[in-house]
Amino acid sequence: ANLNIIIFNMDAFQSVLRFVMNQKSTIGYSFMAILTIGGERIFSMVSFQCPCNRSQNFFYGLTFLLSPAFVLLVLGYFFSTRMWRLFTGCCLNPLKLCPRGNCLGCVKVFIRISVGACVAPVMWLSVALLNGTFYECAVSGLESNEVVNLFCKNKTYKCKMELPRVPCGKSNLPKEDNQELLLMLRAQSQILGWCIIICAATAGLIGICCNNCRSQVSYLQLTFWRRYIEKEKEQFEHYAEDYATKLANRNLKSFFENRDPEAFPFPDHTAWEEISKLYTFSTSEQYYSTLQRYVDRAERDHTDERKPVLAFEEEIEMS
Predict the structure, then answer these.
(1) Can you give the three-state secondary structure of 78-97, one letter per residue?
(2) What angle do CA 309, 96, 83 make, to 5 degrees?
(3) N or C: at which end does the chain have fewer Cβ atoms within 10 angstroms?
(4) What's this protein's family per the entry (predicted)?
(5) Do 68 and 43 form a contact (C-beta atoms < 8 A)?
């Protein structure tokens, strides 16, 4: 009975593990959304204090609204392996960016990189606008007559003067007027936030549909391709760590024992360059990565004269 329980628990654990691995992108985006919401709440409650001054409200609120989004965008580019595959060494070899003069292909790849990097900033802007705190402070400091008249329509001149103090609850307006203005500001912020969410979701859906419609591979082959890339990445990291350890041990042993090092097979510079290129899928070749293309090539000791095509149809690669 105990053995059956153990087997059942192992099967259940493997099922959960497979589900997590299959849904890791969704789980990752969900975790990112949770972090974004938590970060926005911390900013709102701990560090954000609207100055309630007409000359400072706009820039202060806009800084808290856009600065984190900009930082997240920079981090998105920084942690993009695809970006470093594209740009590493491009100053010494400009043809790497635009092989055969294909500048359009480079632009397409950079757009794909930018789309991935924009996920976190869009999440931040959406969450911040739905909360409304930063928007309320920023818009209440605008000096444009059109904006002021929009909020203070059919109200006294005192409303125009006290509008910057509304987000702090320190205005000299009647409580009902102050609450009405605050609700109006918050409603506009939330409408803008939902507009960003709807636009981002629509653009994402259209992009995925267009990409899948133009795909050169079937759904099942695409599924296999994704699984292969995941396994190749996993095994590459394992082999890289193992070989780095062996090479370090061999070099240290040779140094401390003061003798010639043992022969150690290792990829040359050309090989590293070949497998580091961005991969383009071709229906005429049964290759799923630059690594497979390299190891299956008949003459691996010679530099491949073909240039990598950057405008690949699928965004699958070892990253």
Answers:
(1) HCCHHHHHHHCCCCCCHHHC
(2) 85
(3) N
(4) Belongs to the CALHM family.
(5) yes
